[in-house]
Amino acid sequence: MLLLPSTASTAPSDPETLDHARSATLALTCLxxxxxxxxxxxxLLDVDGAPLGLCLVGHRSAIWHSWIAPPRRHKRxxxxxxRTG
Length: 85
Prior knowledge:
Blueprint: E1 2-5, H1 18-35, E2 39-47, E3 50-57, H2 62-67, H3 78-84
Antiparallel strand pairs: 1-3, 2-3
């Protein structure tokens, strides 16, 4: 498990710093997407009246074991097996 901030900075107040803030945030948050890791981001804290988001990044196999049930294999009954050959 890895805990990261959801953004690299607070929301920019002027358009000139927007590109820098966007690039820094993408560099920080692309780790999960590039690696194929499951990630959950939520505004969990409050600092000076502004939300602070935290991103929890899990192990790649965690998505299979916790969120998706493995497929079940059903045995065919004798009557079904006899009809299908």
